[in-house]
Structure formats: C-alpha cells, structure tokens
User: Which sequence fits this backbone?
C-alpha cells in the first residue's frame, strides 16, 4: 500500500516531535507537514497534500475547531483526527458535527493513535470505545443532542446491511467481501446513505444508527 501522509497541528513542539518519532516507526505512515497553529496548517495543506490531519484543539492564531471547519470547506477529502486533552462532551459533539472523523484524548497510546489513523483513512471515522462511542450513545439516547436527521427514511435491505457493517468499523473491502459485492458498490451505498440521512460523513451515519436503534 502507498504511505498514508499525515499532518500534525499542535502548538507543543515536544508533543509533535514525540508523535513524529512514534509514527515514523510504521513504514506505512509518513509525516509530511507540521504546524503549531491552524493558519499555518491551512497554508501548508496545498503543497503537502496529507491524507490525515492530527488536530489539537487549543492553538494560537487559529484553533483546531476553526481549522477543522476550514479544512471541510476547502480540503474535504482530508480526514481530521482530533487528539486533545479536552474530554468534555461538548467538544466531542461539536467537533464530530463539524466534520471531524475521530476524537482521541492525548493520553491515548501510540498504538491506538496508529489504529485511529488507519481507521479514518480506510473507513472515514474512528470511535474510541472508552470515550467516543459510549459517550455519543449516552448523549443521543438521553436526548441531550438532537441531530437534524431526515425523517421517515426508507432503506433497502442491502442499505441496512451496509450501514450495520459500517458501524462495526469494517472497511469497504471487508464489507464487500462479506456481502459478495465490490468495494466500489459499497462506496456507492455509503454515499447514498449519507445523502438519504442528511449527514456530512460516515460518523454521522453511525450517530444516526445509534439514535434510531439500528445498532445497539
């Protein structure tokens, strides 16, 4: 496989350096851009062309929240993985609703960060069981957040099968193998599901599935 190109946006150089060393131990990962604020990150994206951004939230000049919104507007194909010290549910929900593909705390070990990079690159999202998926389920089921999903949606049996497998964090290739269809067909179903539900990305599909008891 070709290397996954990574950008790191964090105002702590020590953290960037340590993360870069850890990621460099994986031959399939390559750090192509470092920035200590959101503005420098955005300026560097056209030349660096990363696949995944590891985004801190609190940075000078432009913070990670604003930078993520700008990435979605201008570089929508790039995946954003938030890695921060902020575990407040308001930050998590805000970032996921505004286009982040995953959310980790900075105490996550290097193996989990690597897994999350592969996941957002291959499936479009990553939920950490201890923080994200459990918290999202708790918040949505309790009605503390109310995503504006389309109502009265009719899904085909195949679409429901694909949606459930997406929620199991399977890649398009894995879903295709299980359902005996091509990965391209899976991507077609994923795109149609996103349009039907009225969300921005795969993470929104998972939130919808949890909210509507499609998955437990």
Assistant:
């Amino acid at each position: 496989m070709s290397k996954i190109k990574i950008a790191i946006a964090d105002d702590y150089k020590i953290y960037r350096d340590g993360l870069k060393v850890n990621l460099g131990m994986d031959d399939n990962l390559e750090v192509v851009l470092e920035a200590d604020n959101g503005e420098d990150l955005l300026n560097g994206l056209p030349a660096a062309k990363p696949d995944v951004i590891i985004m801190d939230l609190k940075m000078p000049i432009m913070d990670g929240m604003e930078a993520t919104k700008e990435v979605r507007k201008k570089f929508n194909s790039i995946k954003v993985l938030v890695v921060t010290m902020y575990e407040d549910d308001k930050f998590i929900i805000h970032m996921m609703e505004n286009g982040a593909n995953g959310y980790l705390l900075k105490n996550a070990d290097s193996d989990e960060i690597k897994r999350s990079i592969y996941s957002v690159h291959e499936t479009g999202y990553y939920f950490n069981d201890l923080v994200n998926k459990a918290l999202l389920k708790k918040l949505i089921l309790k009605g503390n957040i109310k995503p504006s999903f389309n109502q009265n949606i009719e899904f085909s049996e195949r679409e429901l099968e694909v949606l459930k497998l997406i929620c199991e964090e399977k890649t398009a290739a894995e879903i295709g193998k299980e359902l005996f269809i091509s990965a391209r067909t899976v991507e077609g179903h994923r795109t149609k599901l996103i349009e039907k539900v009225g969300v921005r990305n795969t993470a929104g599909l998972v939130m919808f599935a949890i909210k509507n008891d499609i998955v437990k």
